[in-house]
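@channel sequence for tomorrow's demo:
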Amino acid sequence: MTIDEIRQRIDALDDELLKIFNCRAGLALAIGELKKAEGRAVYDPKREQMIFERMKATNPGPLDDGAIVRLFERVIDETRRLERIRTKGE
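structure tokens (generated this afternoon):
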């Protein structure tokens, strides 16, 4: 396989990740709306820890568990940021 072929595969994966990240964010926003309507706290550290533990348990590598947790922390942080923006706009 050539460098260009590998880069094309990476580009295709990046396109998939973009769709997945946005889909995940939309679902998280929907959960946030439901929690808000029920008067529940949006931030749930136990849930986040469950996500991190599940991802580490199913991580096949080559990224180590610390890298996986950092990636998911970032995804969750950005979703929370989006939620704050949406809440302020209402």
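heads up for whoever presents: The domain at 3-89 is CATH 1.20.59.10 (Chorismate Mutase Domain, subunit A).
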